Amino acid sequence: MNDEEIAVQVINIIQVGTVILLSPLISGIINRLKAMIESKHGASIFQPYYDLSKLLKKEVVVPERSSLIFIVAPFITFAAYLVISLVIPIVTSYPLPYGILLDLLGGALMFGLAGTISIIAALDARTNYTIMGASRSSSFTALAEPTLIMIFFAVAIISGTNNPYIANNILAGSASWYLSATHVLVVAAFFMLLLVETGRLPVESSGLMELGMLDDAKVMEYSGKLLALSKWGGYMKNFLLMSVFLNVFVIPWGMSNHTDVIGALYSVGTLFVKLLVLIVVIVITEETFAKLRLFKILDFLSISFSLGLLSIISLFLVGRGA
Question: I want to staple 106 with a disulfide (CB 3.0 to 4.6 A). Which of 102, 172, 191, 296 is the partner?
């Protein structure tokens, strides 16, 4: 391999490593900032790393009536998020070698696949809590996944392609598209969806007696390494959604434009700063909301879906950007 090919492979490793290694930190920062706003001390921002390290050392125990699906599901979902991390703009504004594997709609379907596998695994555990979590999650996913596809479809209309890198370059270089009603509505729809997908709506709780449990209920029967893999996959999912929201939709600037390892490392720092800004906005939004009743999540998702649909309608009513 020549120097450029070696550099591309190193950048690939940097991109995937960024998702794997930084995603728990982002979760830790969100939890710490939330605690600070609530006038609590809160856990360290590195607490997710401590939790993962502890879980990786523990024994795996599986429900007696579960099948092989329960065991392999965390590996499938983790692998799905690894694939997504190879094909979306995270540190570069140009596609890496594996960028041709998936487009925006393909990425949305991959997120849907991971979510479906986790629901099937929860049902396979065959306990009250996991079935409750799977039932609620499937109800919300039935509207959340079409909303995500609708959002990506709207961006595809703007850019004329489903390629996230091309969409990034068009929005970064066209003020008319960036300030258009279509783009503004898409951003609003995606932000609302992001609050739901990352569990930032003030309805979900990790408390064992909380009837609003969603994701925590699905992994209730996991333990040891399988629980660590499930939690890590959840961190990666949140990181990937936030990265797509920032790098493709909201702040499509600050990524490396050249095959340069130093530039890729600089882009990692830029992305971290973007994420910190987004974290502040998300936490303030979460703390500002009154605690919603569980069924209100469907109303929230319906508004998000409607905004995505309106973005497409506005494109034909107002016209294409310059």
Answer: 102
